[in-house]
Amino acid sequence: MKQRIITGVIAAVLFIGITLYGSWPFSLLILLLTGIGMYELLRMKGMEFTFIGGIGMILAILIALPEQWMKGLDPFSKTDAIILAVLLLLVVTVVQKNKTDYNHISFVLFSSIYVGFGFYYLLETRILENGVQLLFFILFMIWATDSGAYFVGKSMGKRKLWPVISPNKTIEGAVGGIFFSILVAIISYTVNFVEMPLVNILIVSILVGVFGQIGDLAESAFKRIYDVKDSGTLLPGHGGILDRLDSALFVFPLLHVLHLLG
After folding, report:
1. CA geometry: angle 33, 93, 98, nearest 5 deg
2. Which residues make Cβ contacts (< 8 Å) with residue 163, sequence separation at least 6?
3. How far from 250 is each of 8, 13, 91, 106, 113, CA to CA, in Å?
4. 85, 109 Cβ separation under 8 angstroms
5. pLDDT greater at residue 159 or residue 78
6. Rounded Cα–Cα distance for residues 134 and 131 (Å)
């Protein structure tokens, strides 16, 4: 527990400091996290040091690049990168005479898109006009959801939520997580932390409470399939980057696709 607390405090201070500063240090941090997150997924499948794993790593980072940096590659776009990656991966299946099959290239493509766009939309939130407040508003709700689900589940949980994927999660805990997300949203509205209509804030808080937990379950499903306890070991006492940001990688793209963050 002591190691977990120390790691959490150090990581939080660094992340908050760089996030508040913004600009290119924040962009570099996001790209670094993208690379680490992609590596963790490739490592689960034993593909971290393969040629197609390298293609996936490059694709994830290109997807996560801020739009201002993408202008330097004009007319090359993120869509071009995805198409080129698909073609390259198909070429590999031919050259390696099906030693690399669709199972491998599908995993690489899916992982690149999942991790790349997850971090890209986190970055896109920060560069909005009120991005700092919005970013922390969403993160506060995600953290409240995680904490609420844990403590309510521990104290009141009886009915299992999805035992095949995550045996310790309960329905009561999931409801508690959603409640705490809504509570943080109401407090944020009351103290004018974010400038959004109350209805929008409540909608966002419910989406974060529900889909933040689905993002957590999705990551748990990955770990179950590949029989690993944590996605990585970068954060002692916490696991890997994906263990800490699995909910965020699900929530931020969803809120942007639904145009709820501006």
Report:
1. 120
2. none
3. 21, 23, 31, 19, 12
4. yes
5. 78
6. 5
* pTM reported for the whole predicted model: 0.93
Region of 123 (left: φ > 0; alpha: ψ -120 to 50; beta: rest) is alpha
| Residue pair 140/67 in contact by the 8 Å Cβ criterion | no
Give 67's contacts (C-beta < 8 A, 6+ positions apart).
124
Taking the C-alpha atoms of residue 161 and residue 150, their distance in angstroms, rounded to an integer, is 13
pLDDT digits (tens, 9 = 90+) for 115-170: 999 999 999 999 998 999 999 999 999 999 999 998 998 888 778 887 778 878 89
* Alpha-helix runs per DSSP H in 65-170: 67-70, 78-95, 102-126, 131-156
DSSP type of residue 164: T
Q: Which two tokens stand for residue 25?
A: 């240090």
Domain ranges of the chain: 1-127, 129-262
Q: What is the distance in angstroms between the CA of the first residue and the CA of the last residue of the chain?
A: 39
Q: Per residue in 207-227, pLDDT tens?
A: 999 999 999 999 888 888 888
What 3-state class would DSSP assign to 47? coil
What is the average per-residue pLDDT within 68-95? 92
Phi, psi torsion values for 175, nearest 5 degrees: -65, -40
